[in-house]
Specification:
265 residues, Fructose-1,6-Bisphosphatase, Chain A, domain 1, 2 domains, seven-stranded mixed beta sheet, five-stranded mixed beta sheet, 7 helices, 34% helix, globular, binds D-MYO-inositol-1-phosphate, binds calcium ion
Length: 265
């Protein structure tokens, strides 16, 4: 029998310890490299933090698999067994440019089902955490179940990219939604943005391309507060590949899907 309370405790301690290491590392000069394009940054701290988790989990839970953004974990073809999906630094551009507004994100799944979600805002020392069936918390404060809000009252997380010329969506699809909502926000860390939806600080979040490590932790938080997440086509997210993501309060999620995205070209 898997001891989930033990894994939950363990994961919280590990993410806090990793966060302390990241805070300490900010006193030293970062080694910054680019990946797929000049704006896709990675630092020595992203890689070292990922390795910290991998070495720890392999030592203490040798049967668990690890999917990490920096590729030092396992190459997974399936979500069978217990899988840790880890983004060691989500919001690396913020990490490099602002030294804040980034998070460590962990989702732990069992046979594809979300069991534990953690998103740690390292600088604010805010740990959003949830275990399946036990509610979600920010540090020790329980997060309330999401209450219905109208689109007019919605704070929408969206990057301006998606309402300008881009390769993934006609800018005309989401521009009217941006006009209709109360306000838009873009924080530059998908994991934090999903945690903010779970915490009711935003009501919805939409983006056209995320990887499993960007959304795994946040989605498990959303499960515990009654949040909904799908692709922009309304399909279930695939935790082994890239996806578009529409997450939010159920009422707002449905309206965005039906009134805006169903017609997308
Ligand atoms: C990125 C952030 C960003 C999102 C990008 C991600 P990274 O993650 O979550 O908000 O828009 O798509 O790649 O590279 O900083 O871990
Ligand atoms: Ca990320
Ligand atoms: Ca990352």
């Amino acid at each position: 029998m898997t001891n989930w309370p033990e894994i939950y405790q363990y994961a919280q301690q590990a993410i806090k310890e990793a966060g302390q290491r990241v805070r300490n590392a900010l006193n030293n000069e970062l080694k910054i490299e680019t990946k797929s394009n000049p704006n896709d940054l990675v630092t020595n701290i992203d890689k070292e933090t990922e390795l910290f988790f991998i070495e720890k989990i392999r030592k203490d839970f040798s049967t668990h698999s690890i999917l990490g953004e920096e590729g030092q974990g396992d190459e997974l073809q399936s979500l069978e067994g217990i899988v840790w999906i880890i983004d060691p630094i989500d919001g690396t551009v913020n990490f490099v440019h602002q030294n804040r507004n980034f998070a460590i994100s962990i989702g732990i799944l069992e046979n594809g089902k979300g069991k534990i979600g953690l998103v740690y805002d390292v600088i604010s020392d805010e740990l959003y955490h949830a275990a399946s069936g036990q509610g979600a918390y920010m540090n020790d404060t329980p997060l309330d179940p999401l209450k219905p809000v109208s689109v007019e009252e919605t704070i929408l997380g969206i990057n301006a990219t998606w309402i300008t010329e881009n390769r993934r969506i006609d800018p005309e699809v989401l521009a009217p939604l941006v006009k209709r909502v109360r306000g838009t926000r873009s924080y530059g860390s998908a994991a934090l943005e999903l945690a903010y939806v779970a915490a009711g600080r935003m009501d919805a979040y939409v983006t056209m391309r995320l990887s499993p490590w960007d959304f795994a932790g946040g989605c498990i938080l959303l499960d515990e507060v009654g949040g909904i997440y799908t692709t922009v086509d309304g399909e279930a997210l695939n935790f082994l590949s890239t996806n578009s993501v529409l997450a939010g309060n159920p009422a707002v999620h449905r309206t965005i899907l039906e009134e805006y995205l169903a017609e997308k070209k």
